[in-house]
Amino acid sequence: xxxxxxIAKKEFTAVFKDRVLLLMVILFLAMSIVSAYVGSTTKxxxxxxxxxxxxxxxxxxxxxxxxxxxxxxxxxxxxTEYIVMIGAVLAFFLxxxxxxxxxxxxxxxxxxxxxxxxxxxxxxxxxxAGFMIGAxxxxxxxxxxxxxxxxxxxxxxxxxxxxLVLFMITAFLYMIGFxxxxxxxxxxxxxxxxxFLVMMVAWICISxxxxxxxxxxxxxxxxxxxxxxxxxxxxxxxxxxxxxxxFSPAVEFKYIGDDLLQVHSESAxxxxxxAFAKQIGRFLYILNMGVIPFCLSALTVKKEGVx
Length: 307
Known about the structure:
The chain is mainly α. Helix content is 78%, strand content 0%.
Protein backbone atom coordinates (compact mmCIF):
# COMPACT_ATOMS: atom_id res chain seq x y z
CA UNK A 1 0.00 0.00 0.00
CA UNK A 2 2.97 2.31 0.51
CA UNK A 3 3.54 2.22 -3.25
CA UNK A 4 -0.06 3.23 -3.84
CA UNK A 5 0.42 6.14 -1.44
CA UNK A 6 3.45 7.30 -3.43
CA ILE A 7 1.28 7.36 -6.58
CA ALA A 8 -1.43 9.13 -4.57
CA LYS A 9 0.99 11.83 -3.41
CA LYS A 10 2.16 12.39 -6.99
CA GLU A 11 -1.48 12.65 -8.15
CA PHE A 12 -2.37 15.10 -5.37
CA THR A 13 0.60 17.43 -5.91
CA ALA A 14 0.09 17.39 -9.69
CA VAL A 15 -3.11 19.39 -9.23
CA PHE A 16 -1.17 22.38 -7.93
CA LYS A 17 1.13 22.32 -10.95
CA ASP A 18 -1.70 22.39 -13.48
CA ARG A 19 -3.07 25.92 -13.88
CA VAL A 20 -6.38 24.79 -15.38
CA LEU A 21 -7.03 22.36 -12.54
CA LEU A 22 -5.98 24.91 -9.95
CA LEU A 23 -8.37 27.43 -11.49
CA MET A 24 -11.15 24.84 -11.34
CA VAL A 25 -10.39 24.20 -7.68
CA ILE A 26 -10.52 27.92 -6.85
CA LEU A 27 -13.74 28.34 -8.87
CA PHE A 28 -15.37 25.40 -7.09
CA LEU A 29 -14.52 26.78 -3.65
CA ALA A 30 -15.63 30.29 -4.60
CA MET A 31 -18.97 29.12 -6.00
CA SER A 32 -19.67 26.85 -3.01
CA ILE A 33 -19.13 29.85 -0.73
CA VAL A 34 -21.26 32.11 -2.94
CA SER A 35 -24.10 29.56 -2.68
CA ALA A 36 -24.56 30.40 1.01
CA TYR A 37 -24.65 34.13 0.27
CA VAL A 38 -27.14 33.72 -2.58
CA GLY A 39 -29.38 31.47 -0.47
CA SER A 40 -29.35 33.81 2.52
CA THR A 41 -30.04 36.84 0.30
CA THR A 42 -33.05 35.10 -1.25
CA LYS A 43 -34.49 34.12 2.11
CA UNK A 44 -33.91 37.59 3.57
CA UNK A 45 -35.76 39.06 0.57
CA UNK A 46 -38.69 36.71 1.26
CA UNK A 47 -38.78 37.80 4.91
CA UNK A 48 -38.65 41.49 3.96
CA UNK A 49 -41.48 40.96 1.48
CA UNK A 50 -43.54 39.21 4.15
CA UNK A 51 -42.82 42.06 6.58
CA UNK A 52 -44.14 44.57 4.02
CA UNK A 53 -47.28 42.46 3.54
CA UNK A 54 -47.86 42.36 7.31
CA UNK A 55 -47.47 46.15 7.58
CA UNK A 56 -49.91 46.66 4.69
CA UNK A 57 -52.40 44.19 6.22
CA UNK A 58 -52.33 46.00 9.57
CA UNK A 59 -52.77 49.36 7.85
CA UNK A 60 -55.78 48.12 5.88
CA UNK A 61 -57.24 46.11 8.74
CA UNK A 62 -57.17 42.88 6.75
CA UNK A 63 -56.16 39.41 7.87
CA UNK A 64 -52.41 38.85 8.23
CA UNK A 65 -51.23 35.87 6.11
CA UNK A 66 -49.21 33.08 7.66
CA UNK A 67 -45.46 33.55 7.74
CA UNK A 68 -43.53 31.62 5.07
CA UNK A 69 -41.89 28.42 6.24
CA UNK A 70 -38.13 28.83 6.15
CA UNK A 71 -35.81 25.97 6.99
CA UNK A 72 -32.21 26.86 7.92
CA UNK A 73 -30.29 24.52 5.60
CA UNK A 74 -32.36 25.59 2.61
CA UNK A 75 -30.07 28.60 2.20
CA UNK A 76 -27.31 26.15 1.20
CA UNK A 77 -29.31 24.23 -1.42
CA UNK A 78 -27.55 25.99 -4.32
CA UNK A 79 -24.50 23.90 -3.42
CA THR A 80 -26.25 20.96 -5.09
CA GLU A 81 -26.28 22.79 -8.44
CA TYR A 82 -22.64 23.84 -8.13
CA ILE A 83 -21.51 20.30 -7.33
CA VAL A 84 -23.51 18.93 -10.27
CA MET A 85 -21.99 21.51 -12.61
CA ILE A 86 -18.53 22.50 -11.42
CA GLY A 87 -17.79 19.55 -9.13
CA ALA A 88 -18.44 17.00 -11.88
CA VAL A 89 -16.29 18.93 -14.38
CA LEU A 90 -13.48 19.20 -11.84
CA ALA A 91 -13.66 15.44 -11.20
CA PHE A 92 -13.32 14.46 -14.83
CA PHE A 93 -10.58 17.06 -15.33
CA LEU A 94 -8.70 15.15 -12.63
CA UNK A 95 -9.24 11.83 -14.38
CA UNK A 96 -9.37 12.32 -18.13
CA UNK A 97 -5.58 12.08 -18.62
CA UNK A 98 -4.67 10.11 -15.49
CA UNK A 99 -3.80 7.07 -17.60
CA UNK A 100 -3.60 8.27 -21.20
CA UNK A 101 -1.44 11.22 -20.10
CA UNK A 102 1.06 8.86 -18.46
CA UNK A 103 1.00 6.68 -21.56
CA UNK A 104 1.55 9.59 -23.98
CA UNK A 105 4.31 11.00 -21.78
CA UNK A 106 6.12 7.65 -21.73
CA UNK A 107 6.08 7.42 -17.93
CA UNK A 108 3.67 4.46 -17.83
CA UNK A 109 6.30 1.98 -19.05
CA UNK A 110 8.79 3.35 -16.54
CA UNK A 111 6.29 2.98 -13.66
CA UNK A 112 5.48 -0.64 -14.52
CA UNK A 113 9.13 -1.62 -14.82
CA UNK A 114 9.30 -1.07 -11.06
CA UNK A 115 7.89 -3.49 -8.46
CA UNK A 116 4.38 -2.02 -8.40
CA UNK A 117 1.24 -3.91 -9.30
CA UNK A 118 -1.33 -2.44 -11.62
CA UNK A 119 -3.93 -2.59 -8.87
CA UNK A 120 -1.65 -0.48 -6.64
CA UNK A 121 -1.29 1.98 -9.50
CA UNK A 122 -5.06 2.36 -9.89
CA UNK A 123 -5.58 2.48 -6.11
CA UNK A 124 -2.94 5.20 -5.83
CA UNK A 125 -4.61 7.28 -8.52
CA UNK A 126 -7.98 6.89 -6.79
CA UNK A 127 -6.58 7.73 -3.34
CA UNK A 128 -4.85 10.83 -4.69
CA ALA A 129 -8.03 12.05 -6.39
CA GLY A 130 -10.02 11.16 -3.27
CA PHE A 131 -7.74 13.27 -1.08
CA MET A 132 -8.09 16.19 -3.47
CA ILE A 133 -11.88 15.96 -3.70
CA GLY A 134 -12.22 15.29 0.02
CA ALA A 135 -10.08 18.32 0.89
CA UNK A 136 -12.18 20.53 -1.37
CA UNK A 137 -15.47 19.36 0.10
CA UNK A 138 -14.12 19.66 3.65
CA UNK A 139 -13.09 23.26 2.95
CA UNK A 140 -16.50 23.95 1.40
CA UNK A 141 -18.19 22.36 4.44
CA UNK A 142 -16.26 24.53 6.90
CA UNK A 143 -16.78 27.74 4.92
CA UNK A 144 -20.50 27.09 4.48
CA UNK A 145 -20.92 26.20 8.14
CA UNK A 146 -19.34 29.52 9.11
CA UNK A 147 -21.34 31.47 6.53
CA UNK A 148 -24.51 29.75 7.70
CA UNK A 149 -23.83 30.97 11.24
CA UNK A 150 -23.03 34.50 10.04
CA UNK A 151 -26.02 34.78 7.67
CA UNK A 152 -28.63 33.31 10.01
CA UNK A 153 -27.19 34.33 13.37
CA UNK A 154 -27.63 30.71 14.44
CA UNK A 155 -25.30 27.74 14.68
CA UNK A 156 -26.63 24.50 13.18
CA UNK A 157 -27.87 21.93 15.67
CA UNK A 158 -26.66 18.32 15.70
CA UNK A 159 -29.37 17.18 13.28
CA UNK A 160 -28.55 19.93 10.78
CA UNK A 161 -24.82 19.24 10.99
CA UNK A 162 -25.47 15.53 10.38
CA UNK A 163 -27.58 16.45 7.36
CA LEU A 164 -24.67 18.50 6.00
CA VAL A 165 -22.19 15.68 6.67
CA LEU A 166 -24.39 13.14 4.85
CA PHE A 167 -24.78 15.58 1.97
CA MET A 168 -21.01 16.06 1.72
CA ILE A 169 -20.42 12.29 1.79
CA THR A 170 -22.89 11.88 -1.07
CA ALA A 171 -21.22 14.74 -2.95
CA PHE A 172 -17.84 13.05 -2.45
CA LEU A 173 -19.13 9.77 -3.91
CA TYR A 174 -20.78 11.68 -6.79
CA MET A 175 -17.52 13.39 -7.74
CA ILE A 176 -15.48 10.19 -7.26
CA GLY A 177 -17.91 8.47 -9.62
CA PHE A 178 -17.19 11.04 -12.32
CA UNK A 179 -13.47 10.69 -11.67
CA UNK A 180 -13.60 6.90 -12.08
CA UNK A 181 -15.65 7.10 -15.27
CA UNK A 182 -13.13 9.61 -16.59
CA UNK A 183 -10.27 7.33 -15.52
CA UNK A 184 -11.88 4.38 -17.29
CA UNK A 185 -12.22 6.46 -20.47
CA UNK A 186 -8.57 7.44 -20.11
CA UNK A 187 -7.50 3.78 -19.91
CA UNK A 188 -9.44 2.83 -23.02
CA UNK A 189 -8.29 5.80 -25.08
CA UNK A 190 -4.93 6.33 -26.73
CA UNK A 191 -5.55 10.08 -26.82
CA UNK A 192 -6.05 12.53 -23.97
CA UNK A 193 -8.13 14.72 -26.28
CA UNK A 194 -10.48 11.87 -27.17
CA UNK A 195 -11.02 10.83 -23.54
CA PHE A 196 -11.72 14.49 -22.68
CA LEU A 197 -14.32 14.74 -25.45
CA VAL A 198 -15.95 11.48 -24.32
CA MET A 199 -16.35 12.80 -20.78
CA MET A 200 -17.63 16.16 -22.00
CA VAL A 201 -20.35 14.42 -24.02
CA ALA A 202 -21.19 12.17 -21.05
CA TRP A 203 -21.39 15.17 -18.70
CA ILE A 204 -23.66 17.09 -21.08
CA CYS A 205 -25.98 14.09 -21.44
CA ILE A 206 -26.09 13.41 -17.70
CA SER A 207 -26.48 17.03 -16.59
CA UNK A 208 -28.67 18.46 -19.38
CA UNK A 209 -30.02 16.11 -22.05
CA UNK A 210 -31.49 13.37 -19.86
CA UNK A 211 -33.10 15.78 -17.31
CA UNK A 212 -34.64 17.72 -20.20
CA UNK A 213 -36.07 14.52 -21.70
CA UNK A 214 -37.67 13.71 -18.34
CA UNK A 215 -39.02 17.26 -18.06
CA UNK A 216 -40.44 17.01 -21.60
CA UNK A 217 -42.32 13.88 -20.56
CA UNK A 218 -43.73 15.66 -17.50
CA UNK A 219 -44.86 18.62 -19.62
CA UNK A 220 -46.43 16.29 -22.19
CA UNK A 221 -48.41 14.52 -19.47
CA UNK A 222 -49.44 17.91 -18.06
CA UNK A 223 -50.67 19.04 -21.50
CA UNK A 224 -52.61 15.79 -22.04
CA UNK A 225 -54.29 16.15 -18.63
CA UNK A 226 -55.31 19.73 -19.43
CA UNK A 227 -56.80 18.73 -22.76
CA UNK A 228 -58.66 15.84 -21.08
CA UNK A 229 -59.96 18.21 -18.41
CA UNK A 230 -57.90 16.71 -15.57
CA UNK A 231 -56.20 19.96 -14.62
CA UNK A 232 -53.10 19.99 -12.47
CA UNK A 233 -51.39 23.11 -11.15
CA UNK A 234 -47.87 21.94 -12.05
CA UNK A 235 -46.40 19.12 -14.14
CA UNK A 236 -45.84 16.02 -11.99
CA UNK A 237 -43.69 12.92 -12.29
CA UNK A 238 -44.84 10.04 -14.43
CA UNK A 239 -43.59 6.45 -14.61
CA UNK A 240 -41.68 7.29 -17.79
CA UNK A 241 -40.11 10.50 -16.43
CA UNK A 242 -38.98 8.63 -13.29
CA UNK A 243 -37.44 5.92 -15.46
CA UNK A 244 -35.61 8.53 -17.56
CA UNK A 245 -34.34 10.25 -14.39
CA UNK A 246 -32.62 7.02 -13.32
CA PHE A 247 -30.23 7.39 -16.26
CA SER A 248 -28.94 10.67 -14.84
CA PRO A 249 -26.79 10.59 -11.66
CA ALA A 250 -27.12 14.39 -11.59
CA VAL A 251 -30.90 14.15 -11.10
CA GLU A 252 -30.58 11.45 -8.44
CA PHE A 253 -27.98 13.53 -6.59
CA LYS A 254 -30.30 16.55 -6.67
CA TYR A 255 -33.11 14.50 -5.13
CA ILE A 256 -30.81 13.51 -2.26
CA GLY A 257 -29.55 17.07 -1.85
CA ASP A 258 -33.07 18.51 -1.78
CA ASP A 259 -34.12 16.20 1.06
CA LEU A 260 -30.95 16.61 3.12
CA LEU A 261 -30.83 20.40 2.68
CA GLN A 262 -34.47 20.89 3.70
CA VAL A 263 -35.76 22.04 0.32
CA HIS A 264 -38.98 20.01 0.62
CA SER A 265 -41.26 20.70 3.58
CA GLU A 266 -42.32 17.03 3.89
CA SER A 267 -38.73 15.96 4.67
CA ALA A 268 -37.41 19.18 6.24
CA UNK A 269 -38.53 18.29 9.76
CA UNK A 270 -37.39 14.65 9.61
CA UNK A 271 -34.31 13.53 11.48
CA UNK A 272 -31.17 13.33 9.37
CA UNK A 273 -31.24 9.53 9.53
CA UNK A 274 -34.86 9.33 8.37
CA ALA A 275 -34.30 11.77 5.52
CA PHE A 276 -31.21 9.82 4.42
CA ALA A 277 -33.00 6.46 4.71
CA LYS A 278 -35.71 7.83 2.42
CA GLN A 279 -33.06 8.29 -0.28
CA ILE A 280 -30.97 5.16 0.42
CA GLY A 281 -31.74 3.69 -3.02
CA ARG A 282 -30.42 6.79 -4.75
CA PHE A 283 -27.40 6.85 -2.42
CA LEU A 284 -26.49 3.27 -3.42
CA TYR A 285 -26.93 4.33 -7.05
CA ILE A 286 -24.40 7.15 -6.54
CA LEU A 287 -22.07 4.75 -4.72
CA ASN A 288 -22.10 2.31 -7.64
CA MET A 289 -21.15 5.19 -9.93
CA GLY A 290 -17.63 4.83 -8.57
CA VAL A 291 -17.53 1.12 -7.72
CA ILE A 292 -18.46 -0.19 -11.18
CA PRO A 293 -15.92 1.85 -13.21
CA PHE A 294 -13.24 1.11 -10.59
CA CYS A 295 -13.77 -2.64 -11.07
CA LEU A 296 -13.82 -2.24 -14.84
CA SER A 297 -10.63 -0.17 -14.67
CA ALA A 298 -8.88 -2.84 -12.60
CA LEU A 299 -9.89 -5.55 -15.08
CA THR A 300 -8.89 -3.46 -18.10
CA VAL A 301 -5.47 -2.50 -16.78
CA LYS A 302 -4.61 -6.19 -16.31
CA LYS A 303 -4.73 -6.60 -20.08
CA GLU A 304 -1.36 -6.36 -21.74
CA GLY A 305 -2.66 -4.14 -24.54
CA VAL A 306 -3.40 -1.10 -22.37
CA UNK A 307 0.23 -0.02 -22.35
